Amino acid sequence: MVKLIKLAPFFFLLAACRPAVSELTEARFRQTIFNYRHLDSWQPHNNHPVVLLFSAAWHPAHNQLLTNLNKAAANYSAYSFYTVNIDNERQLLALFNIEVIPTFIFITSDGRLYNFSGLLTYDELNEVLAAIDE
Question: 73-77 long-range contacts, Cβ below 8 Å, gap at least 24?
Fold first, then answer.
């Protein structure tokens, strides 16, 4: 019991330092966002809006896009932000008809989908999120 109490602040620190954007696999997508195999609507399981960035680590703008996404996540805490590695997640590519990278998919809490193919600066990403929130 004493060890658990001593470790509690450390675990709190780990949770606080967790990145705002995480990588999404097909299995995790079905578990945390929605199971498209039984698709009634595009409404996310947890009713939180979702931002997906389809990209790859080898893409020249990947690191900048990830930085922009992390910054936006700090301002839009109601959203869940994910990256999807196009080299590993072919089923998600097919599901969203991804043909160009980078591509952003925005899923609102009521199930509306928006997409944008191409680079988005931090300011442009904020403009899109603000427009979707209206």
Answer: 73/20, 73/21, 74/20, 75/126, 75/129, 76/129
Instruction: Name the token pair of 134.
Output: 């209206």
Which domains does the chain possess?
21-133 (3.40.30.10)
* DSSP element (H, E) containing 50: strand 50-55
Model confidence pLDDT, tens digit, residues 84-100: 999 999 999 998 899 99
Give the global pTM.
0.79
Q: Which residue type does 110 have? A: D
Give Cα separations from 97 to 13, 94, 104, 115, 117 (angstroms).
Answer: 39, 5, 12, 10, 11
3-state SS class at 107? strand
The four Cα atoms 42, 44, 48, 49 give a dihedral, to 10 degrees, of: -30
Q: Which of 6-15, 96-105, 111-120, 123-132 has the lowest mean pLDDT?
A: 6-15
